[in-house]
## 1
Amino acid sequence: MTVKFRIGLLSVLVGLVVLAIKMGAYWLTGSVALLSDALESIVNVAAALAALAAIHVASQPADTTHPYGHSKAEFLSAVLEGLLIMLAALFILREAYHGIREPAGLDMPAAGLAVSLGATVINAFWSRLLIQRGHAEESPALVADGRHLLTDVITSLGVVAGVTLAVATGLAILDPIIAALVALHILWSGGKVVKESLSGLMDEAVPEERLEQIRDLIAHNAQGAFEAHDLRTRHAGSTTFIDFHLIVPGDMSVYDAHEICDRIESQMERELTDAQVTIHIEPEHKSKRQGVVIG
């Protein structure tokens, strides 16, 4: 069982615990805002299950029908998670609409708020851990799950503030209004997760700082060659795909050219997580006088 899979499994268990706690807060108070918070937790559990399935699929080795591996399964999971976040927001808006039309008083607000805050503390701790470990493991699914939970933390704090204000002022309508405002924030957050995940599915290049690192690795490990051009990159989950053309002397032997390629590939595999490197050797008359100049 991989580290990512263990974290994903724990995320499902944490989601179930938090869901039970938040439903308890709603049952204690009858608050529309707290119900909205609990509805989002149902989505959290579904999203965590989707992330767990994606991590399992993405960990499978390349095969004849998927020669480049299954890493993009994590991006698909992240897109699904973003859509679920947006769906939760629409459910919350519906509940808020009914609450605004027929405001209702709250029962046992202090106990309900205390229970909700307990669930929020759990989510805050777990969302931070998921984002940190997701970046460390280069797992889009875990990062998306962590960001999803972070929106839940913000939601919960907004809900607690809204319910407290409603109780303090006696204005029951503030409860569903706060729920509606929180739902709009969740809707925006879900759209952001979808946008970032789609960039991975569309083979977006690695960030500029990583691209500069790749250029430096080529420049310092390609002694004997003249230049490298047409450098292209893309990332799929934890895998970084790199390909470029390497210009060598026209009279260089295949053996020597291959040695240069091996040196570059070995260094990239040491310094970049799960790098897949493809190098196309060309003679010097193919030089474009651009790209990475080898010193």
## 2
Amino acid sequence: MKGEPWRAALVVLRGVAQVMFQPNAATGLLFVAGLAVGSPLVAFGAVFGSMIGAGTALLCKFPRDDIEQGIYGFNSALVGVAPLVLLQPRPMTWLAIAIGCVLAAVVTRLCRRFAPFPTYTAPFVVVTWGLLLAIHGLAGHEIDAPAGPSPVSEGSLAGFFAEVLSGEAEVWLEASPLTGLLFLIGIALSDWRHATTAAIGSMAGTLLASYHRDPESSIALGLYGYNAALAAMAIWLARPSLVPVLLAAAISVPLTEFFPKSLGLPALTAPFVAASWIVLALIALDPYLQRRGTARP
């Protein structure tokens, strides 16, 4: 990528897009635009993280094709965002981001070499949890970002669709329906089926959370939609059929509800990863689910 800034920019944007399974630079650009709607600083964090992840992979001579497709950018991009949302932007926060983005790329490579199953955003989750534990151990919770105002559920059809779109936005820890809409448009530019699956997943998660009478403010934030959207997309890629897709979305909701808050750590995308693993195991064990479609590479 040296001497070719445009090519490097495409790799960085693909890394951003790969957070939602799209190796498409235009998708990544719309993701960055969506993040900038909520916070230009967070948008910068996504680009910065993907850049560090790709740069680390290049220096460590990871497979070039994977680098070009943004595989080593997406976990690092998420690590670049999470501390800026959860913590105040102090020098310690930026140092943690830089270290975490390098670690995320390395852990991604180790997982791709040795894990017998898809690891998805597990490297982001593990690295971010470690960073938060270390930062809180050094600086206490005074470094935490102040909590914003809790949104109010409107209880209308328009309010429901706003919650669904917020579910898409929460993939990147944002809660803006406009951000979520830009994300869906970005996914559709790459593959309309994936955008449809993401919307179905967020709808299913939001409806199930409402049926379970989960806190309305959490539903309005999209907290039960984003893991469902990601799980639905992940399973569609493995088994393109509605039954396992809806199953994955549904399983993600109780995992989000019962995530052990006593640990003092945010759930992040851990429920998505766990739900996807559970459904992949069920597909491997259940001949009926195996017949519900043909696996994609």
## 3
Amino acid sequence: MPLALLALAVGAFGIGTTEFVMMGLLPDVADDLGLSIPSAGHLVSAYALGVVIGAPLLAAVTARRSRRTVLIGLMVLFVVGNALSALAPGEHLLLAARFLSGLPHGAFFGVGAVVATGMVAPERRARSVSLMFLGLTVANIIGVPAATAMGQQMGWRATFLAVSAIGVAAIAALAFLIPRDHAPAATTGLRGELAALKSVPVWLALGTTVAGFGALFSAYSYITPMLTDAAGYGEASVTLLLALFGVGATAGNLLGGRLADHSLRATLFGGLASLVLVLALFPLLMRTPVTAALAVALLGMAAFVTGSPLQLMVMEKASAAPSLASSANQAAFNLANAGGAWIGGLTLAAGLGTTSPALAGSALAVLGLAVAGAAYLVDRRGAVPVAAGGRERVVAGHVPEQAEAEAVRG
């Protein structure tokens, strides 16, 4: 695999760290700024809102720019947002800084996925995307726990300064490792990019992301009370168990990338079916500490097996605008975060039990399977071409610079 993928992984590591570290620092931020925990929780929502708005918007308006230049620019915006978060004197400016920090998130992963697939042979594209996402999953194992500990010991502002430093390192890696491409990322312009998103298959692919990852966040948002109230763990053990989730997510991400290169659709269906089963078994697995720990790892693995297939499927369905579609998929991921947490919360408010969010998640995963099945039927009716050897072809790889690279290899 090209060394340039390391630059994308470093950026993903910084983004993953800043996205999830706020959950662990909420009490510290609330105490320092004189806020209630619910009010401080708006900082999480502000970041997610930035992702949802920024992902398609920034990808669309930078469509004619060099992808290397776009990635560096997005990371500069990331550094500025996190630095402003560290310096924010009060709640309102911190909310604005967190919103700003979220803006480049989706576009970075979206454009980065197109760059990653453009640097490898067709049969290794899913693995290239999974290696970029590796930075995101490793952030849950190393970055978030370390940044949380730093914030608790040195103050939450130090955490965001450290995250800014990671962003600076990512900028340097992108500048030195990503090949210069003088051609624009797209030649169709903004109108052409937006027109590529009008197809039913694109929206079915995005809908699969919302339902599938909504299933994950329905349960994961309430994993702490499940572990403490149902499985009997102490609160001090939760951080270690969440790192175990990161281990499972990392393994699932790498496995999904490898399997998707052989059969993208089968990997997606298998991952969603596994998610249905794992979440359905949560009420049983949460009865003992050992099986609860196993459940946390399996949840991460089952959910992230689908990450690379979903990203590539969206790019395939919008081959004329892969950067915009890929970025829109990241917006869908964050909608899944908010929607899944809301649905899981409804089951708790209804008094259905501590593990009821997992059952709601299982139902959402079934919905994801149904949407993925509908997408498959639409493809069959449209006679989607299949590459030699029976493998599904990722049309998104045939953007201008990719086709040129393949011609050189041929």
## 4
Amino acid sequence: MAHRFFVTAIGTDSGKTVFSAILCEALKADYWKPIQAGLPGDTDTIRTLVSNKKSHFHEEGIKLTTPASPHAAGKKEEVEVSLQRIELPETENHLVIEGAGGVLVPLNDDENVIDIAIKFDAEVIVVSNLYLGSINHTLLTIEWLLKNQVPVRGIVFVGDPNPESQEIILKRSGLEELLHIYNEEKITKKEIKKYADRIREKI
């Protein structure tokens, strides 16, 4: 049975794209970015990092060039950004869907990025990069998801190990740590394969 995973994070530039590449490699899954705001596009980045021949890289649902929240970029470029305009790509394969920013980043005045995951019945994976303040940001994100009955598969940590932060996040959230992505000098296909091997048995 094919699964849909929605990759979200506690903020911007958190490691969502790198993890999405890892997950695509581990599952030989397709990749889709429903809303791209800013260039270069994440789809192009993912394509250069995934080695397997099965993954397909679907065209973005809405493509914006302004590096801003979808609602702001849409207004600036006079492009309608809404759930109604976003259609799930056709595939029988596993599908990795990468969000834009965090859970409550607005698409417009009424809808948020996480509504994409809800609309398409995708299981959420939360990427938490370990910085000062990440405990609060991570737990608030997870609390919102769980209170709104959004299924969460687990947490991915990014950055230098911080055992105290990781332990309290896992304890209070009750979620599983799926992977820890360390600070690498460079992210290449080799690193993606390495982490794909680590997460394959957990996902």
